[in-house]
Write a structure and sequence with these properties.
The protein is built from nine helices and five strands. It is of the alpha/beta class.
Length: 194
């Protein structure tokens, strides 16, 4: 897991076309969240210096990942930023592989990778089992980034109150400091199209 190319995003095929321009807000709250994400990009340098992240949480199918990808795409194309999008489960699996003697990276190198990116997006927070081990892994990554003033963007289908229970108060408290929380509490776009 090495970023050889600044701007590497790790965008999955489903969101390959996700941009601010392709996001179609279906209600005023969605339009406001789009505007907030665009504002985050416009003020990226200040946010980066302050280590300010974002939390996008709420119902599935409401455009959270689309906006997170669009935001990352804009930041990555604006300079030589190391931006990476992944899921909480993939981070946990990367750490577990590092514990295997045949793993491609050591635990230290895995932590270093996730801890030194200019912007890390962790999607699907809350679909894990929620074990103490998983919570500790995610806390270690989030805490390292917090201490080094590196922004992290979390995406979750959980409401903020449930997110606190899942991640733990310590981790969430660090993300709230200077960060922005956007709620996506309307009906799924995907279900509306079905």
């Amino acid at each position: 897991m090495e970023i050889n190319n600044p701007g590497t995003l790790n965008i999955v095929s489903r969101f390959a076309q996700a941009t601010f321009g392709t996001y179609q807000p279906q209600n005023p709250a969605a339009a406001a969240n789009l505007k907030t994400c665009q504002g985050y990009v416009q003020t990226w340098e200040e946010r980066k210096r302050a280590g300010e992240g974002m939390i996008l949480c709420g119902r599935q199918g409401t455009g959270k990942t689309h906006l997170a990808v669009a935001l990352c795409r804009e930041i990555a194309t604006g300079g030589d930023e190391a931006v990476f999008i992944t899921t909480a489960s993939r981070i946990i699996r990367a750490f577990r592989r590092s514990w295997n003697s045949e793993g491609e990276m050591s635990e230290f190198d895995t932590l270093k990778f996730y801890s030194e990116l200019d912007l890390l997006v962790i999607d699907e927070i809350g679909v894990q089992y929620g074990t103490e081990s998983e919570r500790n892994i995610l806390f270690e990554v989030l805490n390292n980034r917090y201490e080094d003033l590196l922004p992290t963007l979390l995406v979750s289908n959980l409401p903020v109150t449930e997110l606190a229970k899942f991640l733990g108060d310590r981790a969430l408290d660090r993300l709230f400091q200077g960060g922005t929380v956007l709620a996506f509490d309307w009906e799924s776009y995907r279900r509306a199209r079905a």
